[in-house]
Design goal:
The complex is a heterodimer of chains A (115) and B (112). By secondary structure, chain A is an all-beta fold. Chain A is built from no helices and 12 strands. The model of chain A has no long low-confidence stretch (mean pLDDT 94). Chain B is globular. In chain B, strands 2, 4, 5, 6, 9, 10 and 11 form a 7-stranded mixed β-sheet that branches. In chain B, strands 1-3-8-7 form a 4-stranded antiparallel β-sheet, with no helix packed on it. The chains are: A mainly beta (115), B mainly beta (112).
């Protein structure tokens, strides 16, 4: 079975500053993807960034980047130049290709960006 | 227009009632999923379907049933709703060979 753990229930950051969210996971599979989803107050699930396990290079999407440490099974998200619109719940998720692309989610981290 | 739609968006019902949540997609994806989100928690998989004739249980299927009426439609039913099924329910779709799931807007269900 797969597990995903997010150890930070809440984090706050000043506008324009940087915040890093932690995620650890556990799986015995080698072929998998990792994701960060954002859930703003509108409750829509929005994909922020994805990482393929076989790629060593860390993924980046504009102000969002990840630090993927495969051996340590760690997948942190860095939000640079934080904006008020980044205020949301952030979920780390693991997808096992051999398991029908089902997603296993962490418990989430609430991020509050302060003006 | 949204690619993945869910109806209703909000629903309040009473204990013991039967309720159906519906999901439709225009993405042409074969795979569809139902997730449940409890307050302050991540999403948990209820059921998933790879095509009309292939339906599988997820982590928390007890108390739920599903129907895949067509490639584009996947419904979730609560045969006899109970208060601890109060939650936010999401439908998602995924294409074969694609790694991303696309989520609907969610249905907030309250069981009194």
């Amino acid at each position: 079975a797969q597990t995903v753990t997010q150890s930070q229930p809440e984090m706050s950051v000043q506008e324009a500053e940087t915040v890093t969210l932690s995620c650890t996971y556990d799986t015995s599979e080698n072929n998998y993807y990792l994701f960060w989803y954002k859930q703003p107050p509108s409750r829509q699930m929005i994909l922020v960034i994805r990482q393929e396990a076989y790629k060593q290079q860390n993924a980046t999407e504009n102000r969002f980047s990840v630090n993927f440490q495969k051996a340590a099974k760690s997948f942190s998200l860095k939000i640079s130049d934080s904006q008020l619109g980044d205020t949301a719940m952030y979920f780390c998720a693991l997808m096992i290709k051999a398991a029908g692309n089902k997603l296993t989610f962490g418990g989430g981290t609430r991020v509050l960006v302060k003006p | 227009d949204a690619d993945v739609t869910q109806t209703p968006r909000n629903r309040i019902t009473k204990t013991g009632k039967r309720i159906m949540l519906e999901c439709s997609q225009t993405k042409g994806h074969d795979r569809m999923y139902w997730y449940r989100q409890d307050p302050g928690l991540g999403l948990q998989l209820i059921y998933y379907s790879f095509d009309v004739k292939d339906i599988n249980k997820g982590e928390i299927s007890d108390g739920y049933s599903v129907s895949r009426q067509a490639q584009a439609k996947f419904s979730l039913s609560l045969e006899s709703a109970i208060p601890n099924q109060t939650a936010l329910y999401f439908c998602a779709t995924s294409g074969v060979g694609r790694d991303e799931q696309f989520f609907g807007p969610g249905t907030r269900l309250t069981v009194l």
